[in-house]
Amino acid sequence: MAMMLSGALWAQSGTNSPYSQYGLGVLADQSQSFSRGMNGVGLGFRRGNVVNTLNPASYSSVDSLTMLFDVAVSGRITHFKENGTSVNANNANIEYAVGSFRLLRGLGFSFGILPFSNVGYHYSVKTPINTTYGSETETYSGSGGLRQVFAGAGLSITKQLSVGANMSFLWGSTTNTMTSTVNSSVNTMSRQYSATIQSYKLDLGLQWLQPLANGDRLALGAVTSIGHKMSGNPELVIANSSVADTLTAKDAVSLPMSYGVGVAWYKGQQLVVDADVHVTNWGSIDAPVYYSEKTGKTLTSAWSYKNSYKVGVGADYVPNYIGRKYFQRIHYKVGAGYATPYYKIGTDNGPSEFSLSAGLGLPLQNAYNNRSVLNISAQWVHASAKDRITENMFRVTVGLTFNERWFTKWKVE
């Protein structure tokens, strides 16, 4: 049955989407502000003036005098539509905070906190019964999400080859509640799904930088995330006016194996064109199955996992990065992408996404350098699934990359 919108959707996390009730929630965009205007691509992106957590091999490019720190916030407006009913919702949140500096020659270090998934929604479904009982109203709400704090390193093996790794601690909790009421007063029944997760996450990456003619370069990037079981036993509490039962899904939370490859073409210092492909083996893990030791009752999730795919392409152009005129040093960015869902709702696929983006990288000037950059990007995402809610989300991200020479050795004569 299609989800019916009633009233205003709201959220206390980084999403307002009713689709965040499935799986681990809406998976977060883990790119940094410099690539948001390029639609989040970056597996082959390699420059020493940005923090690129998408591929930890890129950390080795940071120079010996630089301390990088990047923080971003975002705001979004989402339009939901189904069967002629429309609702608008909006929210804002802090996206991430990351930093990077060089430890040794050819060895870069990075650290920070990133989002992983978000849960946040509130909507209702009203179904007529008969003249005696009137109608049944089912109210759905959810909140929470997962975050990860990480430390990573990237090492240059040769002038062309670099490798890297991120080790993360992943934690968070989610709560999804459904309450069913007849005539707003009798036969109230509720179901509350909850899970608290604490685990590790390991990501590996490499980059190969190939010089071309006329000073051009080609960068190849590859990443993988190691799949494994995570701690946490999701619970389901079913209650009505007279009785309650708790069902548990033991060892039912896992991270899938994922892979990504990307290629970036550098036209001197003016232009970068990057294309990425990601594959995540969600279909190799099972959705939770809840069991009650009290009653012996078993309940299977209404959704299941499936393998997901994501492709994206983006470009970054700067007319003259060392020019005297300010507008010649601005970075102009565009991008596009497509992603398939990582879950099914019953037998139907979840929503697929198509997205477009654009952005600016504005150099900041002060008394002693102009290395820091203010990145502003806008992204439109269209998500739709068969016979279900259609979402059109417009997101603006503002990120500030501090790029300061902390490690300069001053010489006194």
Q: Kindly provide the radius of gyration, computed on alpha-carbon positions and rounded to a whole number of angstroms.
A: 24 Å
Tell me, what's the shape?
A: elongated
Structural class: mainly beta
Q: What does the largest sheet look like? A: 14 strands, antiparallel, barrel
- What's the helix-strand series? EHEEEEEEEEEEEEEEEEEEEEEEE
Mean pLDDT: 88
* Terminal residue distance: 79 Å
What is the percentage of strand-forming residues? over 45%
Q: Any low-confidence stretches, pLDDT <50, length ≥5?
A: 1-12
Count of separate DSSP helical elements: 1
**Helix content estimate:** under 10%
For the largest sheet, list the strands in their spatial order.
Answer: 2-3-4-5-6-7-8-13-14-18-19-22-23-24
DSSP, total strands = 24
Descriptive account of the structure:
- With 413 residues, this protein is mainly β.
- Helix content is 1%, strand content 60%.
- It is elongated.
- The strands form four sheets. Strands 2-3-4-5-6-7-8-13-14-18-19-22-23-24 form a 14-stranded antiparallel barrel.
- It has one helix and 24 strands.
- A hairpin with a 5-residue loop joins strand 23 (373-384) and strand 24 (390-404).
